Amino acid sequence: MTTSAPSSENLKRALQPMPADIGRLLKERHLERAYEMRPAYQRNDYLGWIARAKRADTRQKRIDQMLDELARGDAYMKMEYNGPRE
């Protein structure tokens, strides 16, 4: 499976591209499927939130939070998530 950026279907915000490092981390941690199972708006929100970080340490903290939430499968941006999972 190739991890891609969210599709533009029904998104109200600008479509965010998938950064190579994040795609690599999703693959390395076997979280590609968990990422793809999330709705397009959540995938887009995660990428936009990460892209807006001004400092490298803030960006890394946000990436770590996204990966942790995908691994656990029970949260989205620190909110409860009960949607589809692997």
TrEMBL record:
One Pfam family in the UniProt entry: OmdA
Name of protein: YdeI/OmpD-associated family protein
